[in-house]
Amino acid sequence: MRGSVSENAILTLVGTSTQAACQWGIVILLAKLGSADIVGRFSLALAISAPVFVFSGLNLRAVHATDAHDERSVRDYVAVRLLTSLVGLAGVLLIPIAIGYSGETAWVIALVALNKAVESLSDILYGTYQRYEAMRPLAVSLVLRGVLSVAAVALALLHTHRLVPAVAMLVASAGVTLVFHDIPAARRLLRASGAVSKVATFREALAPSWDGRALRAIVTSTVPLGASIMILSLNANIPRYFIEHSRGEHDLGIYASISYLAIVGGTMANAVTQAASPRLAHLYAERAIQPFRSLVSKLMAFAAALGVTGSIVAAAVGPELLSRVYRPEFAAHGRTLNIVMFGAALSYFGGFLGTAITSMRFFAIQLPLNAVAVLVTAVASATLVPVSGIDGAAWATVLGSGAGSVAFGVAFIALRRAEPAESRSMVDPLA
Predict the structure, then answer these.
(1) Most exposed of 117, 169, 231, 301 (fewest Cβ within 10 Å)?
(2) CB of 191 within 8 A of CB of 198?
(3) Which of 204, 201, 226 is nearest to 52 (CA)?
(4) Could you give the CA distance from residue 216 to residue 263 in angstroms, rounded to a whole number?
(5) Residue 174: enclosing H or E segment and its boundaries?
(6) Is the separation of the CB atoms in 170 and 153 below 8 Å?
(7) pLDDT at 255 over 70
């Protein structure tokens, strides 16, 4: 059942690249059939909902996927994710009320939050696929949801030319994928792996397990990780808050559209991360320290190659690419694209190092590491965006990503000397 890292990376890359292309396709549709203002409104909703759901998600997918000692059951993780998704949805719905957004903006924020909640349920099942290194159903799910979402959004925009129906169709696409693919595929995998009996019903295989002790143990140990990943999400979104506040939705739409061009490299990095994290966890848990370090070194080399390639492409054909993909007016922002790609290159290193540290089951330490990055980004955004607009936002991202990567690098060098315990518990020894 278990495939090689390279095989799993290819499968994951197919899925994540299709999903990323479809997400980018949605932005292109919004820009071409709508306007930069509509893209900005959609991006604002994503920027508001993403940190909330990242925190409420507690990075359970990664924790589940790297649970090499089977400390908790799939049903335990499903229960926690269901509860935290409801909390995240409620949290996002309060934000428009607190800030004072109304009308279409408030509806878009609410629907994007609902879409995030549905996707979060699929996400925890992706952790099950990763746990058993069975990446084919994960790839199929990403492709299915991506294609459905683009088709649904295109249909809504062509018939209504409004953002609210388009986002509602995103929710429907996520729901169809969850019900008709993700749940049945996870149940089949658990049966095939022997985790449940061959005749296990849905209730026996995937229904939430309301074991209070298990739920408390998972939540207690993963809250620091959720907070850490939330800070990482804030690091990406803080420049967008400053753009919307000082420059408006039009400039936010331009910046968000340009940022999506970095999605190619990010998708490849994400695919390798998802494929490598279970293997890293097994190597570290089995005390195979040298192979563990070797795999991390390969990830660093891949990050360097990916970053250099993206920067070269942006410098060579950036303005023409922006003009053709979006509209001619975007070509004037070629310099912004160069800066964005440089920041993306730096982020790959921090992302891979964070994956390695998570695989080592060190959770709490990631909170202060990511806090360094978000603090730098916030200060840089407050200083640069009012003066330089979207270029200032791009430079703020560069500074934040660079600071985060350095912090994670220093931490990994210190932590890798620690000998893994025979059976590391869910409790972070540094907590």
Answers:
(1) 301
(2) yes
(3) 226
(4) 36
(5) helix 163-177
(6) yes
(7) yes
What is the sign of the dihedral through the CA atoms of 227, 300, 257 and 274?
negative
Residue 320, judged by CB atoms within 10 A of its CB (0-12, 13-18, 19+), counts as: exposed
**What does each C-alpha distance from 165 to 31, 148, 153, 218 come to in angstroms?**
16, 15, 8, 37
Which ranges of 199-333 does DSSP label H, i.e. alpha helix?
202-205, 212-246, 249-259, 263-285, 289-325
**Which residue carries 């926690």 as its tokens?**
80
Q: Are 229 and 54 in contact (CB under 8 A)?
A: yes
Which residues, including other chains, have CB under 8 Å from residue 272's CB and lie 6 or more apart? 9, 12, 13, 299, 302, 352
Backbone angles phi, psi at 255, to 5 degrees: -65, -45
d(CA 33, CA 163): 10
Q: List, for residues 175-214, the tens digit of each pLDDT value.
A: 999 999 999 998 888 887 776 666 566 666 788 888 888 8
User: CB count, 10 Å around CB of 4?
Assistant: 11
Q: Which residues of 206-232 are buried (b: 16+ CB within 10 A; e: fewer)?
A: bebbeeeebbebbeebbbbbbbbbbbb
Is the pLDDT confidence value at 70 over 80? no
From CA 330, how far away is CA 349, in angstroms rounded?
29
Q: From the centroid of its chain, how far is CA 108?
A: 20
- Would you call 204 helix, strand, or coil by DSSP? helix
Q: Please return the burial class of 362, using the count of CB atoms within 10 Å of its CB with bins 0-12, 13-18 and 19+.
A: buried
Give me the phi and psi of 277, to 5 degrees please: -60, -45
Using CA of residue 276, residue 278, residue 280, residue 282, what is the dihedral sign?
negative
Q: Residue 88 and residue 323: Cα distance in Å, rounded?
A: 37
Q: What is the pLDDT of residue 429?
A: 35
Separation of first and last alpha carbons in the chain: 35
Q: Show Cβ contacts of residue 147 under 8 Å, excluding neighbours closer than 6 positions.
A: 18, 22
Is it the case that residue 336 has pLDDT exceeding 70? yes
The helix (run of H) or strand (run of E) holding residue 198 is none
The two tokens of residue 210 are: 């309301």
